[in-house]
Amino acid sequence: MDAVTLSMMDTARAYLKLDKSKFIRESVREKAEAVIAEHQKTKFSAEDWTAFFGALDAPAAPTPRMTKAAAKFRDLQR
């Protein structure tokens, strides 16, 4: 680790009153969570948004198979 990074880490962990090991573990965890969250986001293009909200505003009629499945589900709930 270069001297500048080490100095920054020591200053930051002193503010938080954490030992080096705990500071490193928490920092790695925070960074890992941020990277994972960013990569697991669903990203939509403008066309995707238009199609999505269009489908909400004007949903397609249920197919016969969907109607049958809904009826079967209702029967199972009774």
Overview of the structural elements:
The protein has 78 residues and is an all-alpha fold. Helices cover 78% and strands 0% of the residues. It is built from four helices and no strands. The chain has helices at residues 3-16, 20-40, 46-57, 64-77. The longest helix is centred in the middle third of the chain and has 21 residues, at 20-40. The protein is elongated and about 70 Å long. The mean pLDDT is 95.
Q: Output the structural class.
A: mainly alpha
Q: Per DSSP, what share of the residues sits in E-state strands of 2 or more residues?
A: under 5%
Average pLDDT works out at 95
N- to C-terminal separation?
65 Å
What general form does the structure show?
elongated
- Residue ranges: pLDDT <50 for 5 or more in a row? none
What's the helix-strand series? HHHH
Most strands sheet: none
Number of strands: 0
Radius of gyration: 26 Å
Percent helix, as a range, is: over 70%
Number of helices: 4
Keywords: Toxin-antitoxin system
Protein name: DUF1778 domain-containing protein
Pfam family, one: TacA1
Family: Belongs to the TacA antitoxin family.
